[in-house]
Amino acid sequence: MAFAQTKTVTGTVKDAKTKTPIAYATVAVVGAPAAAGTSTSTNANGEFRLVFPTSYVKIRASYVGYDNKDAFVTNDAVQSKEILMDAQDNMLEEVVVKAQKKKYSNKDNPAVALIRKVIENKEKNRLSGQQYAEFDQYEKMSLGLSNLSEKFVNKKIFKNYQFLFETDDSAKTANKYVLPAFIEEKMSKVYYRKDPSKTKQYILGDQRAQFDPKFIDNDGLAAYFNKLYEQVDIYDNNISLVTNQFLSPIANSAPTFYKFFITDTIKTSQPWLVELSFVPRNKADMLFKGQLYVTLDGNYAVQGANMTVADDINLNFVRDLQIQLKFEKDSKSRFYLKTSTLGIDFSLTEKGMGIRGSRTVNYNNYKVGIQQADSIYDGPSTVIAYNIENKKAIKSLFETQRPLALAQNELNIYHNIDTLQKIPSFRTFMDIAALVLSGYKQAGPVEIGPVNTFYSFNPVEGFRLRIGGRTTEALSKRFYAETYAAYGFKDQKWKYFFSGTYAFNNKSVYSFPMHYIRASYKKDTKIPGQKLEFIQEDNFLLSFKRGDNDRYIYETNYGLEYKKEFLNHLAIGAGFNINKQSPAGSLTYQMLDENGQNKLFNELNTTELSVNFRYAPHEEFYQGKIYRTPIFNQYPIFTFNYTAGIKGLAKGEYNYHSFNVGAFKRFYLSQFGFADVTAEGNYIAGKEIPFPFLTIHRANQTYAYQLNSYNLMNFLEFVSDHNASINVQYYMNGFLLNKIPLIKKLKLREVFSFKGVYGGLRKENDPDDPNYGSKVFAWQRNADQIQSSYTFGSEPYMEASIGLSNIFKILRVDYVKRLNYLDHVDAPAWGIRARVRFDF
Fold it and tell me: Is the pLDDT assigned to residue 534 strictly greater than 50?
């Protein structure tokens, strides 16, 4: 029996003159039929790997703008080749645009006329121009530390980690290293239908180098990386990258923002190509520079693209960004995207250590015009179509059907991450990192924290000490317990919390999709009207507040909660709560009795049933220890909540029905930034309801800018039983400041906001009504017996702000102006508020 013999050829493809690697060049076996292994593309470092029969002795490298280069190989089982490619004589390495007497103009400019032809024909040339299409898709994303010096690598602390470091062949200077740290691969079958529009991705296999989930949310980390390294579609008007939007050079409005130049005609390709170079009119705008290769066959299709960004762009931490798109022609002379590669190098400084990543998407087996059954397109846009537990089958899929060979350093990442996590010193490092980033300390099967709540202070409790923790999956995957105890040295009272949660899906209760039931008991203080997201109320930093802020509630709550999330990001929930509350500090519960005398109440009791719905299509987030950090996109989020107070059940004293609806949407405005808009409405049905069970509008008396609170409203200032609100946060991303000399070097970004809420109290819940005023609690008053809480008058409460973000790349500072109700006691007219905002 004869066995086919193969040989493995690895190597690099470089520019013959500059010796710089050529990324994503095609390397093919000359004379071999198209088959797996006989053709590949170089990676971001110009490296390739081919495995093919020994009967073939020549390989060929090709790339747009270079002459093809052949290299002979021997019959050695393993060998390496360096292929040096010569740039074509008519290829320009760069475009230098110098000021001329004649000012650049779109009028009578052949380059602009050509790009208008590309824009005019883009709908027929893009995938969405087909009624039906399907193709195979392979994605690969890898990241690692870059630009590491020899001195850094050889530090004593890294003695046991030398196997991780690799020489950086792409570095401009010698003795530079990289540390590969993450890789993810995904193979899919994708179906597209134009009408009704639907793209359905069936994931056939997905594998990544994973860290211990008790330290890192691997799914969230992958989602975050995917957001930074999004797929690039040159035919979209706007291209999303690193959480920003860039105007495409073939967007409908591109001639307004770009300058275009015809810099080459390439006759070695069929059809002939025009190299169309482009640069931003304003170097600081969110725009690209680079080259497009346009076909001269009457279709004006894009055959290739090389793009980067200007050095002056207002983009944080990005040291280098490269995009390369490669299209291939089918039998009907249509060009389809073959390979899309995005490489980004992040760094705090120009020369220091950074994080380099690349995402490559390869497309094969395009078929158009094939209508599949409706069931193929139905359901969520993405479906996992394989057994995630069968690790062996997944590994075999990639080993046998991976269309682009991995470089050896990429293959090593899988093994190195597994090895790394077995080293005790690395696990200790991850434990400390988890404490710093999440606030929890690992202690066997439990976690102690969060540390930022261990100490705080407020006017009612004085100094407050708290200790708490929760169980982890090391104890049980189905049952979770969480608890804390706190003590106030001024009121000399203990506070407690305990909850037990049972997960029906044998996953962490915080992992998507959630499905659990939770029982809890809580005895603690609460500020009426303060509702915080992603932070604890007794966080130390929130202890610092302005004005009078000593109106508190002592609350005792017994709760039962059910929650279920679905894969389409619809979430449903139900709850049952028994609540007892007493006033604390200067808060009072009082009303006039039959004799006109004040009657004080020391306790209120209510029993509530609730249901809620939340729908967030295509939602993305990073899951922390407690909170999810949203990764916003263009899709809206809808919420609906209903709560019923039931009198006579478990000591409940009041009947009421509360309805709340809300919607959030991020609007992308291309070069003008983006706006986050939240709209909310609330209606409470019932009469003679005490104000603690009505809507106490979200106020903020800290010095931090809170997105969803009214930053110049006082606690318990406004109360209503029906209301509607709007909240607009507009981030212009430096569009104005980037055009001001000197100022633009600071890379500051403008941010504007407007918040308004309007509502009122029906007469049966209004303390000022002559018929019902004696049946509901009176308005709050300050120490001077001046009224300090109100409902709305003839106009909504409004506040607006103008601010600067990106200060030191992480800080947002706003000047906030209160627009009305300035006659209220202690109402601030303006204030300076700050917020830490990490962005790119």
Answer: no
